[in-house]
Predict the structure of Baseplate protein J-like domain-containing protein.
Amino acid sequence: MATNDRHSGTLRTDYETDPAQLHGLPAMESSWQRLLHRLVRYSKGLEYRDDDGQEGTLAPLLENHVLTVVADLMRKRLSGYDESFADAQGTTGESEFHDKLETDIRRWAARLEAFIDKSWKTGLNECPAVTVAVQLRDSLKKSLPMADEAEKHGYYRMLRTVRSIQEHAGYYLEQIENGGDVDGALSLLIAYVRNYCSLADTFNQRLPELHTLYQTEILHVKPGEVVPDKAYIVVRPTEICTLKAGQGFLAGQNAGGEDLIYRTDKAETVSPLQCAEADAVYLLKNGDTTGIRRQTIIPDNIVNAVPLFDIHQGEPLSFGWQIESPMFILNEGKREVTVTFHAESMPLSTNKVSGGFSFYMSHADGWQELSGESSVTGNKLCFRFTIEQDGILPTGCNEEVHGKTTDNPVLRIQTHENSSFPLDAVSQLEISEAEIQVHVTGIRNFTFYNELGEVDTTLPFQPFGIQAECGAWFLFGNEEMGMKPLTEVMMKGFWQKMPETVQAFNERYKDYKDINASQFKVSTQWQQGGKWMECNGEPQQLLAFDDTEKTCRTHILFDFKEQRSQTRSLTSHYEYSRDKDGFFRVRLQSPSEGFGEEAYRRKYTETMIQNARAKEKNQKEMPKEPVTPILSDVELEYSAVQRLTDIPKAELFVTSDFQETRFKSRMDKEEDKSLYFAFVNVRGLQSLRMYLDMVIPPQSIPYNMPKTNGTVSLVWEYRKENSWTELSSKTVIVEETCGFTQSGFIEIRLPEKISDKHIDRDGKTWLRAAVKGDAGSCLAIRGIWTNCIPLTAQNGDGLSLAAGTIKDMQEPDGRIALIRQPLPGFGGKQADGDNLLSSHLRARFGNHHRAVNRKDYEQLVLEHFPEVDKAVCIPCTDKGTRQVRLVVFSAGADSVYYLSPSWKLKEIERALRQYAPPFVRLEVLNPVYEELKVVCKAVLREEVADEGKVVRNLVTLAWNYLAPWKRKGTIPELQQTYSYKELHARMANHEDLQTVVELTVGGHTPGTVDFDSSDYIIKGTYPYSVLIPKMEIILLSPDDGIESTEIGSSFIIK
């Protein structure tokens, strides 16, 4: 069995039970008959000398008188004689009971005979005392056993006779006393005895009242009166209104059958204000920060309260930036984008940010993730991604798909959910400059004009027109390019019907003076503000031959200073006009003959005339036909750079659905856990007041209780015009939660009344509370209620009011739409009984309000904290350590494991410090529950049919041994030790088990378990530990393992 040879603590039931109560037992004997019997017994040792000088004792004077005999008979206690004699039937005890009763009767009869003889000798044989004596003597003698009679018959007859005399003893005593012939000395003695008994009886009656006399007359202490119960109600008004002080609310009926009324303590102003949303936002840390999460808190969640900042709760958030820009109008081609953030100081490096960010671009159907990379160069954080030729078409956001509307596409850069770099450092990044670079290739849809008008570029065309003379021109434009600050534009294409090599081209133009491939150059211009601006650089080569591929290409580059981006809406067709930007012109600068069409016609004519006049042998060779410049597969390419005037602000996004949040993106190292509160119906208000109902997280019971390792403080901010502003401590009017570690009111008075600039597009006004310090001590939020009003019972008896009782006002008010009582009453106390007051006084007499020994600490806790059901003081036994641990069990917060919230432990600790010696380090704590894993492998007997029942029985056996308090519903005992061998024996002796193959307790498995083996002691880690077994039962069939058994290994033959 479990052993506990240590101090087990003090229960409240023991504390409130007064062991010094008489319970009806007279402190002094007040029966004169019993006292007379005692005088007779003690008179044998009292000697006297009479006037004649004769000496003797008082015994003969008192012993042989009918009064003393009757008193002796009345003293005889006969209860249980029947049962004892019946139980002794057939044993030697039967004769012992019979002989003892017979001896007593003969002794009483002899004493009466002596009294009768003495009375005859003195002539008093006719007095009533002698008559009574004769009656009693004759009755006693007749009851004596007869010869050859069974013992039991005589015994029961004697027993009945004595009982009959006891029943009529009052009659006999009355006859004796009223006879008037009692000896004078004996009468005087009886008078003295009766007077004494009267005094003793008075003392006995006054004795139970002495403690009350001491309390009221000396200590002037009165029992505690009824402490009225209190309750919170939540009011939903239709408008701002004030409830007067003393406003009544109906709460059923009290014990007297009257209407139970709860009233307001002061005037309360209520409004339609409601808390619509609450969120906990926090960083997950494991070395470097690995994630951000949002835990949505239901403002009214009485049933399922979850712990704050729990890594297993909530949904992931991403940190990042949203950038809206016309630079992201990327309609076609291969689009390469680089976004660069310049920071004054860069706490990151490439190896930390590489792979840590995702890129999303808005398009018609939502958000499209893009592949990209991140890097750090100096103080620059760079993001690069590419949209391939067949990629998405970025568009502006719309309300239905993206939750907002924008004119231009939006790029979202956000961290991965499982990123492994310091997100807190990223959130604190101070961006001084931001830049977007775009490089697009493969644009095929654009507008093209030459001297003949607009040209269809999807087919091969003559860019310089039919003549292609020097000075011929063409221009092109693209609206996408016209909306961006360009730095470079290039037009690419292939020349059709062109000689394949430079030599072939020059051979074609050998008859043309000063015309060869290198002479074809063009100048470039770009239009801005209705004027054509010359591009930088010298005229460019128009023809680019590739002798290897036998092709001829053109690469015309427009290099200029950065353009101003234009704001315009996209159109289906981009027509040229002088007031539009984004158009570029190419003019054929050389050779002077252009492509030689005019020269060819002239030379052709001259040759024909000359050949017509000359003989055949003198005729000239006809000039070769010049090249007609035809372009095909024309593509545009451009680069643009935009330096953002509005630096993008960091934001937090919901990873799963890309939803934007109102949360503050900057997270300081000491403020990486925050609570956000969103209120509605707030316009015109200045004060925001709410009640937070905090409880121990159910998921944390009993193994992961919140622990207080330091102080907790809150830093409050409010959202105004899309930015967060810190509130001074003066604006926090009420803060009773002590950093979300206990229930209480919070009231914030803003610097100004709430207006449109404080309300977001969803109609919500936001508060933020950053938690600084030990957030591990924060409790779970079970409810957040605005317009929460405290009430006090007017005519109650101190009993707690059940939740949901208060629903109506005593006097109906049309301004109040709803009244509800979410929580049961609290703080009430019934009037103290005399017993409880006596317990407090007894404890105070014992400890004198000083904590010296263990009992003192325990009694002081039970006296000052009625909610504590048990206290166990555990002094530290280590040499030189002056520490006292006080373990408290309280069913107030948890009726199963008797756990208290951390704030209550601190409150108890503060209260007891004033009674403890200054050198003692006091620690008040909860019991620590430890999970003990027990694995039992056992072989079933063959005839067992219900394996589930066997498993349940084995689990019950282990629980009854290791944790019987759980089954009984009692308070656990501390410092318990358990025997492994005993647990093994309990399991092995189960009738349905053939054998226990293996029993592992807490990872420990002894090799053998027999009479000679040493035992393994099972106990908790700490003196204040309580073990809770976690069972795993593995049942094996009788045939398991037979085929693999080997003689010499598994079997030992002795």
In short: The chain has 23 helices and 49 strands. The longest helix spans residues 92-122. Residues 230-270+791-820 form one domain.
